[in-house]
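Here comes just one.
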Amino acid sequence: MADAGSSEKRSDSESPKPPQEVVSVTHGRVKINGTDIPYTATAGTIVLYEDDPEFKQAPKAKATVFYVAYTRSDIDDQTTRPITFSFNGGPGSASVWMHLGLLGPKRVLMADETGNLPAPPFRLVENEYSLLDQSDLVFIDPISTGYSRAATGENPNQFHQFTKDIESISDFIRLYTTRAKRWLSPKYIIGESYGTTRGSAITNYLQNRYGMYLNGIMLISSILDFQTVEMDPGNDLAYIVILPTYAATAWYHSKLDAKLQLSLADTLAEVEAFATGEYATTLLQGDGLAEGKRRSVIRKLARYTGLSERFIDQSNLRIDLMRFTKELLRDQQRTVGRLDSRFVGIDRDPTRESFEYDPSYAVIHGPYSATFNDYVRRELKFESDDAYEILTSKVRPWKYDKHENQYVSVTEALRSAISQNPYLKVFVASGFFDFATPYYATLHTFNHLGLEQTLRNNIVIKHYEAGHMMYTHLPSLTELKRDLEAFVSQTKNV
């Protein structure tokens, strides 16, 4: 197989040669739900070309997209076999997280059921929770992540923006579907984090640009409306919808009073009612709030968050996320994670306002990086000397073009897609301990999607006692596998 990292020297007077597509095909087996599943694994690149709108010149190579595809090999008629396209978020993240954590035939072995960091060296194990028994899988690395790169002579920054990102990944999906002869297969998209922003927009784009209608879209830790998470002056919504996650985190670390520690479900129901009720109306009053009412709300916030009344008072009743991660366990000189607040870290300076690093990212970065870099060469036989960009800052600053000077939102794109294709179903998974995309912010978003009443049952929302990557928590992975399996099974023939 050719080395994907090799290149030929050329003089400056020569025009750059179009990049070559490189493909490696291997075979494997995985046991899922007691069934032995044989599969073909394809790791390779696809070159994306941009046509001349006036058809006067040959298509121009724009980028090379790296992907890993798994196809069940004991299926005679692939037209009835579902196919799922997967990507993560960031922006700047490769597709490795759901690939080796949730969906693929191999998964990263963590230290225990909680998902703690194992001692290096790390390893992969057979993934009995893979979705490969239900659907073929294609993992896509957006341009500048993983091994995906802009073509020679092309500025990679052109792909580091909302619209071009949507177009390039949609073009890949169209091209892969065409080459693999899968236009008549039930088709799905699964995205995580910013991948849910991307995935919702792609779903609408595929329908309108190519007439490609999907059976379903699966949103893992979703963020469709950025107003729900941006803690800007004047945007009280973000403080309201994150409050239940503050309570869940305080509950996990035993910082609440005895009554609230009895049941997470009961506590969250109480805090949710307070958040969108008394707390929301209190923040709406701003500086016009009466002092007696202010003191009453401060006491309730302290009870629900495990923070001191003094801290909440000084925060003007609006608790900043990064300060919370530092403040909750400050008496223990520990911090809590942003991606998953179950995890704790140790900072050099206990007095600073926010954590030095995200302890929940630290526990996954090393294991996922090491195992993928070994797996792609050793088992998938794809060779490249390029760095596999797992989570890169090279895409920054990310531009939101048509969303500039406003909060990014793809809710209308998703609403439109479902309205035009009423068979499109949506599965939403949220973790109670996720600060990056708080579960109650997601509920708020879908409660304001604006779907006509007869289409509201197209949305299925599930919650898990874990964080952003809930599949690192083995009990949640078990539940999520069961929920995804049911979703695909129930929607592939609808």
In short: The CA atoms of residues 86 and 139 lie 5 Å apart. DSSP finds 13 helices and 14 strands in the chain.
